[in-house]
Amino acid sequence: MTNAVTAALEYAKTHRSRFIDQLGELLAIPSVSTTPEHQADIQKAAHWVAAYLEKIGLQNVQLYPPDSHPLVYGEDLRAGPEAPTVLVYGHYDVQPADPLEKWHTDPFKPVIREGQIYARGATDNKGPFMAVLYALEAILNNGQLPVNVKVMIEGQEEIGSSALAQFIAENKKLLACDFCLNPDTGMLAPDLPTITYALRGLAYFELKVYGPAQDLHSGVFGGAVHNPAQALCELIAGMHDAHGRITLPGFYEDVRPLDEEERAELARIPFTEEMFQARTGVPQVWGEPEFTFYERITARPTLEINGLYSGFIEAGAKTVLPAYALAKISCRLVPDQDPAKIKTCLETYLSENAAATIRWELTELVHGAASISDRHSPWVRAMQKAQETVWGVRPAFKREGGSVPVVTQLQQILGVDSVNVGCALPDDNMHGPNEKMNLAVWEKSLASYIHFFYNLAGQGQAGEQVDR
Amino acid sequence: MTNAVTAALEYAKTHRSRFIDQLGELLAIPSVSTTPEHQADIQKAAHWVAAYLEKIGLQNVQLYPPDSHPLVYGEDLRAGPEAPTVLVYGHYDVQPADPLEKWHTDPFKPVIREGQIYARGATDNKGPFMAVLYALEAILNNGQLPVNVKVMIEGQEEIGSSALAQFIAENKKLLACDFCLNPDTGMLAPDLPTITYALRGLAYFELKVYGPAQDLHSGVFGGAVHNPAQALCELIAGMHDAHGRITLPGFYEDVRPLDEEERAELARIPFTEEMFQARTGVPQVWGEPEFTFYERITARPTLEINGLYSGFIEAGAKTVLPAYALAKISCRLVPDQDPAKIKTCLETYLSENAAATIRWELTELVHGAASISDRHSPWVRAMQKAQETVWGVRPAFKREGGSVPVVTQLQQILGVDSVNVGCALPDDNMHGPNEKMNLAVWEKSLASYIHFFYNLAGQGQAGEQVDR
User: A150 and A102, same structural domain?
Assistant: First the structure.
């Protein structure tokens, strides 16, 4: 270890309690983005982050756009054009705290209990992104950053990062980088550092099936009308075969196959079928027999029914023959599936299978492609080495079943991979009551970011191999 | 025609406008049974009917039970034990009038416009049962009833006649009769008198399919969980084959076959597939190919989905993998299907077809058997002859797809058929805004009841053939 690394690690240790107090200040701001009444708090949090970036010495600190839900930007490019450039991502906005009655303490008055800090936003994402910024502070305090750093902390993640794609597209030069460091993903366990290298995409639809012009009396008309609720069920039932494979024509055509090396990597993840069953409470695990349950939930595309509605659903009996039935249907996508093509697959299936006795209507509500990062890139190797140094174990390489819009946006618009490494743990209650973050893991995480920035030094844009 | 018949018909003509005024009084009482705030109006209507029965000279007039929703009873048994005994059914309770804003005039201020009387309850069922009572008045005014008559006008029909079965069971002797005259069914057209000889039964269920212990994130868990909404759809889709036949094991076992004579009778009904399609607005008629559409909606059992619910059904996208899914499923039954056995059929189907990846729960909500009356009984023949006399055409013999609880209850508890002949027309807006009744048809109906009672005379309990 160089003197610089040692000094930065020492600084982080010395300032531990100030770091936590300062994080507490940020956690105390209820920067909920999902409801308009917290607009002032969103502003307050954005300005807090901007002020912090200025204080540790970043340049060109700005709020984009300065009005609602600003994105906070700051940079330090003094490492020079030969050094790699890292874009640091984070989000200062949080989910609403309700149901409030389920919190043991005030969600916006952070408290520390048994080594955990409890507050809304503790683990999603204020704690993790502040760990990256504290790592920068620790390094800057003792000298110059070994790489160029651009920091982008947004305020719309919990409402879908809807304006972010446009911002990235309009600021390609500002954000130009070699890769993004994204601390908005989780760890499998406190003692198992985790690199999330792939996220699934999403294509979300609403399907409506129409039958009679209005609700009918099921006694008077039943028997000669193709019930639209039944017709919808028939269509949905046909979307999977008996083995759980999706039947939409062409659905799997562009799926990038899993190679044996990657399957072996995923098989190392210490999450068993029994654990999955205990966690979900399902009577039995389900799905494509030729893939492990973990591959099914992370590396394979899916088609899920998210909602169903038709006719009478209150308590009791009403003999209605419904005029229509509705389903919310979404597909999780993997590389290299194209959401637009998935819509075509679904339309083709419906055209081929819907009976002439009903009419149907398909609307796309949301879409986003999957993302995958090269597990062997110099940036991933720099992170792997940093984690091995801090934890003393090889990190897990994890694919995640959900979607993180910014990762896909950066890949599609800037053409860069993300190194997704945060410290959220499975029991951190992200989005739920009593959200918390494990402070010991967070400190290790902070230390690993310090190592990571130094490991990157000398990698240049060309992406040479890191020495292991 | 005998002098007595002529005199009674003459009396009815003479008193036409007083009959309508008096019906107007009854229609002005908002005897809505479905909401508790009309309790006083229910009482008022019951007492109005009882007073009328006393006024025309019926004996033993009573309210059972005298408190809430009383059933009004009265009798005239002076024809003696050799003459047939008719139980006259009717109901004085009505549906709520809302949506009030869709009524052109006050639903409880009857008005006559273009030969139609408009009011809530006009056609369902105050007008039709008063036609029977006016027929009795017309006959009584000129002498003695040719048959024994027991009148039973209930106040709970619109809330399912829930207490009626018990009342019938506890008053078998009081209600003992040869058959029931039920004016609570409709006519196919103003110039086509109609005898409804069969009604379908009902078995109504709620099916719940359970998957994970709670709603899951469809990105994080999707692919290894058998989605309960999908599983429900798979189960429902399998309940019919590709030809619209129900697949539940044993479902059709007890269905009484339709003979050629009855099929020919049903084929006479002037309701075409084109009319059905125009009325319902369906793109195409559906169902068992070996039966006509009319047989399918009246003489064949069905399985309908009345409601579907799972997960997220609001506007927009929520990526939930639901914990459960629910369907309301009901079967219309025909003679001689047993509702209890239908539940077993459904349970067997579910046991055989539900995957081990989900759990299911089936609850029966409502049940009632189908009913069918002998089309060749002396009572039906007496009615047929009466209608032919008044309208000059042979009546249509109609099966109805819906259920009328009292008809089944009388068949099961007292062992008697019902002659179901009312004057509600398809455009009378029963249960809807601007309910009305056609006064010309109503007068013919009243006349036909007079003929009917005289035609019955001399039939005795033995049920000899009426001379045609």
Answer: yes
Q: Residue B361 in contact with residue B342, Cβ under 8 Å? A: no
Question: Which residue type sits at A185?
Answer: T
Residue with tokens 């539900």, as numbered in its chain: B354
Q: pLDDT tens-digit profile of A88-113?
A: 999 999 988 888 888 999 999 999 99
Judge: B282–A217 Cβ closer than 8 Å, yes or no: no
Running DSSP on this structure, what letter comes out for residue A79?
T
The pair of structure tokens assigned to A172 is: 């390609």
From the number of C-beta atoms within 10 Å of its C-beta (0-12, 13-18, 19+), residue A265 rates as: middle
Residue B351: domain span? 203-255+301-366
Structure confidence by residue, pLDDT tens digits, A38-67: 999 999 999 999 999 999 999 999 999 877
My answer on whether A338 and A426 are in the same domain is no
**Chain A CB within 8 Å of residue B208 CB:** no
**A81 and A135 assigned to the same domain:** yes
Q: How far is CA B45 from CA A358, B23, B37, B416, B424, in A?
A: 45, 11, 14, 28, 21
Quick one: which of B356, B351, B350 has its CA closest to A282? Answer: B356
CB contact under 8 A, A306 and B322: yes
State the helix-helix crossing angle for A228-237 and B228-237, rounded to 10 degrees.
110
Q: Write down which residue in B318, B333, B366 finishes a domain.
A: B366
Coil, strand or helix: which one is B151? strand
| Position A287 in a domain | no
Residue in A with minimal Cα distance to B403: A219
Residues of A within 8 A of B266 (CB-CB) are: none
Identify the closest residue of chain A to B211 by CA–CA distance.
A282
Q: Is pLDDT of A447 > 90?
A: yes
Residues B393, B340: one domain?
A: no
Instruction: Report the alpha-carbon angle B391-B92-B442, nearest 5.
Output: 15
Between the CA of residue A220 and those of A209, B94, B129, B190, B297, what are the distances in Å? 21, 20, 22, 19, 6
Contact A222 B302 (CB under 8 A): yes
3-class DSSP state for residue A461? coil
* Residue from B313, B366, B429 to probe the interface with A (highest A Cβ count within 10 Å): B313
* pLDDT > 90 fraction of chain A, expressed in percent and rounded: 86
Contact residues for A329 (Cβ-Cβ < 8 A; gap 6+): A204, A205, A206, A207, A236, A239, A303, A304, A305, A306, A346
Beta-carbon contacts of residue A91 (< 8 Å; ≥ 6 apart):
A125, A129, A153, A154, A155, A156, A157, A158, A184
Look up the CATH number of the domain holding residue A231.
3.30.70.360
* Residue type, position B93, single letter: D
- Closest Cα in chain B to A403: B219
For residue A253, what are its two tokens?
A: 């055509």
Provide the CA B11 distance to its chain's centre, in angstroms: 31
Low pLDDT (below 50) residues in chain B: 460-468
Residue A287 near chain B (CB below 8 Å): yes
Token readout for B30 is: 């908002």
Cβ burial B53-91 (10 Å sphere, 16+ → b, else e): beebebeebebbeeeebbbbbbbbbebeeebbbbbbbbb
Of B366, B384, B409, which residue is a domain's last? B366
Are B17 and B106 in a shared domain? yes
Do A52 and A193 lie in a common domain? yes
Whether B236 and chain A come into contact, CB under 8 Å, resolves to: yes
